[in-house]
Design goal:
The chain is mostly helical and 185 residues long. Helix 1 crosses helix 3, helix 2 crosses helix 3 and helix 5 packs across helix 6.
Length: 185
């Protein structure tokens, strides 16, 4: 399975792996055996076999597939996205002052007509140096009495029903089948 952006590898690690692939391609040209190449480069024989097959069909560059795909948003478009994000969520019709991944996904879709998943948006932001911001401590303006009242009055009405007091059944057709003892004649 191929992963976007090198499977989460750092740039240094991707460069290192690319050098290994190019070295393997050079060794193919010299006629070295797969097991020798795998031992010397400290990779699996199966990886060497796949690379040799790709190399024989398309040359040294085919031995390296390169990145899985290009990002949907180029660096120029991401700069535009950053400007939009810095305007704030209220400027884009959000009721509060916090950005979450889903509204950013929606913004990208509306502004650039590109479709990202929520996980893709998280990876995009992380790749460009953005991080999740969580407050280190509670706000000074926090009203503890209002929070306690909300927890006591509003929150319980939003919760679902509690656990039943009687045992349930694993059968939809015979409610007592789970707890019934076998009958012997």
């Amino acid at each position: 399975m191929r992963y976007a952006q090198g499977g989460g590898l750092t740039d240094e690690r991707r460069i290192f792996r690319e050098k290994l692939r190019m070295e393997a391609a050079e060794r193919f040209r010299h006629g070295d055996e797969n097991t020798v190449i795998a031992h010397d480069l400290r990779i699996s024989v199966r990886s060497v076999q796949r690379r040799r097959k790709a190399w024989s069909q398309g040359g040294p560059r085919a031995a390296s597939k390169g990145p899985a795909s290009l990002p949907l948003l180029s660096d120029d478009l991401f700069t535009v996205l950053e400007r939009e994000l810095l305007k704030g969520p209220v400027a884009h019709g959000r009721p509060d002052q916090t950005w979450t991944l889903f509204p950013i996904k929606t913004l990208i879709g509306r502004r650039f007509h590109k479709s990202y998943t929520v996980q893709g948006v998280a990876a995009l932001l992380k790749r460009h140096g953005w991080s999740c911001q969580v407050p280190a401590r509670r706000a000074i303006e926090r009203d503890e009495a209002a929070v306690a009242g909300w927890v006591k009055e509003t929150w319980p009405s939003g919760e679902g029903p509690g656990r039943r007091s009687t045992p349930g059944s694993s059968s939809r057709t015979r409610p007592a089948s789970r707890w019934a003892l076998p009958r012997f004649p």
